[in-house]
Specification:
The complex is a heterodimer of chains A (380) and B (449). Chain A is mainly alpha-helical and 380 residues long. Chain A has two domains: 227 residues, no CATH class; 124 residues, no CATH class. In chain A, helix 12 packs parallel to helix 16. In chain B, a hairpin with a 7-residue loop joins strand 16 and strand 17. The radius of gyration of chain B is 22 Å and the shape is globular. In chain B, the strands form four sheets. Chain B has a seven-stranded mixed beta sheet with strand order 1-14-13-12-15-10-11. Classes of the chains: A mainly alpha (380), B alpha/beta (449). Chains A and B meet through strand 1, helix 3 and helix 18 of A and strand 21, helix 10 and helix 11 of B. Strand 1 of chain A pairs antiparallel with strand 21 of chain B, so a sheet runs across the interface.
Chain lengths: 380, 449
């Protein structure tokens, strides 16, 4: 590492003010800061600082995503080939299809981030480290790579950079990518052929559970399979077990908000119970047990990795409870009663992203009113 | 009479190099310095010239804003130099000290027999007025105002802080008279907060309401205590005084002389034998630290590591500081230093280091930023270390855009920069919160007053 440091120190002057590649300083900085936490010392304020920084936070999230990612790759193979093959057969089948998606996602996304950093002359932010992995994990495995690339372009430019970059965006960029793909290339994003790799060629039909339910077919997937994730779906979403491992990492390290996760489960459970109580002869989803709602579709993945995105979620403690609860409610509501979308998690989170600042506003007004009341009491 | 207050939010940072309960003296310096930048917002106007002789307690300069507020010499000697910077701004006043001190005598008096006006006059004349700071704004109090209460926090919770009860031992009488004097200045109460887990003499003070405080840092911050005991509303004035300065005020009334001596802690991992020293105000840092430091490149801080000021060895110890901290300078790169669960010699509020496994370990933290400045991303972390009933992130944002109405609504009057020190510390995005709040308070002084 001394060698790398030396090389960096050698070329660094070219990127500094007055150097020949001055314009590319943000790009150089981005790479340098990735390799080495810089030698910056505290100038103002507290002289000592917490060991945490944004890169560390983002990497914890990436680590938390790994169990779901690895399982998802295996599951891609399993769903396609069926029983009777070795673990490595399944895994390599999935990996061969998943890795190009990850490479495209990171390549295109980081390329745009670096370009913006150079154009605007600001630092490269770390936000995309997580977004770049989330996007391929919530897309159908067979999505053509150019569609994936276009979705990434849309998400990063319109979803994030247009608002000022990491920390300024209103909507979760990964979900914007998915929403963009869904509305632009609907045949590739829903239906009974997209969730299993090569399903058309191989003649394997792979409807998701929610898709079957929406078609009023009561699925025969066991609860155990739902929990373990032995069912068709996007790479990240199927295994509740693996997502829970990720959730445990996020909660234990203190990175994600447990309030949002718990509140969303409460909201979804109550809504599920409500529909169970009403019941319906024509819509199988009304009768789908409320607790199984938590195991299927993108619910677990969305609540753990998407709803908790601190930038787009509510920022106040009370606000997080309300925000999480309403995401849970809307996710199930859309699932059950909206005939066009079998899954409601993405829409619920995007909707609440929009309302998060409103929720915060009213929570903070509570604090402001308390202060004004105190003043009036003193004056009286 | 005492009440118990438990503060739940906050964070104790355990650092290597806490001062041992051992007191030594240092050799008397030849040259002392008064640094007007210790007094925030004060523009000094010189009273003395180079070559003038001064005694302890003789006025050296006064505040341009209010010429009643005088700043006096901590030693007797000759004015050596008035160091000026750009636009002839006064940076330092250097005084060559005599072998031994002679004192300006302000007369022995009993505060109980005096009116508020008389007490004020003595404090202003002797330079002791500078001990009294006001909230909001965290500046020297305006003598023409009357505060709704006066707060003294004798509970230190900051990392490496000096223990107030240790520094005050043997000064019971002075401290009591100081409290008596302060109590004449307010219609309301004098609130004295003490360490809830100890039973020092401070628990038995008269003329003050005693509050026994328990909790992690910043429980010892006077601003936190004010918010729990008698929060500041728009238009209120609250005064605060440091405990050793209270004793110095007491000494003034008991003996007629000002007492420029303070017990300070020399602490931090780069100090070979951290302990307490008796020093005179205005002593140069070099006279305090000489021969007592380790070799590593280090930073000397007048004050604690969270709120102190970085100083060079030729500066003097800060007027309000009772600790000098020496920490290793952190100007090094660390290869993949952001990798979670690696680099476990660092401390974090999060559990992204395995250092959480050793909660009682004392850490040897350096001054590395441990990252780079970023936009606000992570939420909820500031709230964990903010016991005052404000929304820290929203208040910071309102302050950054200088939205005065919003700042007022969100409680800018209730906070001082030191209350945001832990926000500085925990911020993932390395936000300079204390600096933002200081600028916000200065804006409020200008716009609202």
């Amino acid at each position: 590492m001394d060698f790398i440091r030396k090389q960096l120190d050698n070329i660094k002057p070219h990127f500094e003010k007055g150097g020949k590649y001055e314009k590319f300083a943000p790009a150089f900085g981005g790479i340098e800061t990735f390799l080495f936490v810089p030698n910056h010392t505290t100038k103002k304020g507290a002289h000592i600082r917490d060991g945490i920084d944004l890169k560390r936070v983002m990497m914890v999230v990436v680590i938390a995503l790994l169990p779901a990612l690895l399982f998802g790759m295996w599951n891609v193979g399993y769903q396609n080939m069926g029983d009777g093959h070795s673990f490595w057969d399944y895994f390599s089948f999935g990996a061969i299809r998943m890795l190009p998606m990850i490479i495209i996602s990171y390549g295109v996304g980081l390329g745009i981030e670096f370009a913006y950093a150079i154009l605007r002359g600001h630092d490269v932010n770390e936000g995309y480290l997580v977004t770049g992995l989330l996007i391929p994990m919530i897309m159908p495995i067979d999505l053509p790579l150019w569609m994936l690339a276009l979705s990434v372009v849309f998400a990063v430019i319109i979803g994030k950079e247009a608002f000022g970059g990491t920390g300024m965006n209103i909507l979760n960029p990964a979900l914007i990518a998915r929403a963009f793909a869904l509305f632009s290339y609907a045949p590739f994003m829903s239906g009974n052929t997209v969730w299993v790799a090569d399903s058309v060629a191989d003649g394997v039909s792979g409807e998701t559970l929610l898709g079957e339910l929406a078609g009023n077919i009561v699925p025969d997937t066991s609860v155990f399979d739902m929990f373990m994730g032995y069912m068709p779906g996007s790479v990240g979403e199927t295994s509740v077990l693996m997502i829970l491992i990720g959730a445990a990492i996020l909660l234990f390290t203190g990175i994600a908000s447990w309030r949002i996760m718990i509140a969303s489960v409460i909201g979804a459970s109550l809504t599920g119970l409500f529909f169970n109580a009403i019941g319906s002869d024509t819509n199988a989803l009304f009768n789908f047990p409320w607790w199984q709602h938590l195991l299927v579709g993108g619910f677990a993945f969305g609540m753990v990795f998407m709803a908790t995105d601190p930038v787009t979620a509510a920022q106040t403690t009370k606000g997080k409870w309300i925000y999480g609860f309403l995401i849970g409610v809307f996710a199930i509501l859309i699932r059950v009663v909206n005939p066009t979308l079998p899954e409601g998690v993405m829409m619920a989170i995007l909707l609440m992203n929009v309302f998060a600042p409103t929720i915060d506003h009213y929570v903070i007004q509570g604090n402001v009113k308390r202060r004004k009341k105190r003043l009036q009491k003193v004056k009286a | 009479m005492s009440t118990d207050i438990k503060i739940k939010k906050g964070l104790n940072i355990k650092l290597k190099g806490r001062a041992q309960n051992k007191l030594s003296s240092i050799n008397r310096s030849k040259i002392f310095a008064i640094d007007p930048s210790n007094f925030h917002g004060i523009i000094p106007k010189m009273i003395v010239k180079v070559g003038d002789k001064v005694q302890v307690g003789d006025a050296v300069f006064y505040a341009k804003q209010n010429e009643q507020i005088k700043f006096t010499s901590p030693v007797s000697g000759v004015i050596k130099e008035i160091v000026r910077g750009a636009k002839r701004k006064i940076l330092k006043v250097l005084i060559t000290a005599d072998e031994s001190d002679s004192f300006n005598d302000f007369g022995v008096k009993t505060p109980d027999n005096l009116t508020a006006l008389q007490v004020k006059e003595i404090l202003l004349e002797s330079g002791c007025w500078a001990f009294i700071n006001q909230r909001p704004y965290d500046i020297i109090a305006n003598p023409s105002e009357s505060p709704k209460a006066i707060f003294v926090s004798a509970y230190a919770t900051a990392p490496l802080a000096a223990s107030h009860s240790y520094a005050l031992s043997g000064k019971e009488k002075e401290f009591q008279v100081g409290i008596d004097a302060l109590s004449t200045l307010t219609e309301g109460k004098v609130h004295l907060s003490v360490d809830g887990s100890s039973s020092s003499f401070l628990n038995d003070m008269n003329n003050a309401t005693i509050h026994r405080i328990n909790g992690n840092h910043p429980a010892g911050n006077v601003g936190v205590q004010i918010s729990k005991i008698d929060p500041i509303n728009s238009g209120d004035r609250v005064w605060v005084v440091n405990p050793q300065d209270v004793a110095a005020i007491g000494n003034l009334f008991l003996t007629g002389k000002i007492d420029p001596e303070r017990i300070i802690a020399l602490a931090g991992s780069q100090v070979s034998d951290p302990q307490y020293y008796k020093v005179t105000q205005g002593t140069k840092i070099i006279d305090i630290v000489k021969g007592k430091l380790k070799d590593r490149k280090s930073r000397i801080i007048s004050g604690n590591p969270l709120t102190g000021t970085s100083v060079s060895i030729n500066d003097s110890i800060g007027f309000y500081d009772d600790v000098v901290t020496v920490l290793p300078e952190g100007d090094h790169y660390s290869f993949f230093g952001w990798m979670p669960f690696f680099g476990n010699n660092k401390f974090s509020m999060s559990r992204t280091f395995f250092s959480f496994l050793t909660p009682n370990k004392e850490f040897d933290l350096d001054t590395n930023l441990n990252g780079e400045e970023r936009a606000f991303v992570i939420t909820g972390e500031m709230e964990k270390v903010m016991p005052i009933d404000v929304y820290p992130m929203q208040l910071l944002k309102a302050t950054m855009v200088e939205d005065i109405e919003k700042m007022e609504n969100l409680g800018i009057y209730e906070v001082a920069p030191e209350d945001f020190a832990l926000v500085d510390f925990v911020s993932t995005s390395k936000i300079e919160a204390q600096d933002i709040i200081r600028q916000g308070l200065d804006l409020m002084i200008k716009e609202v007053g």
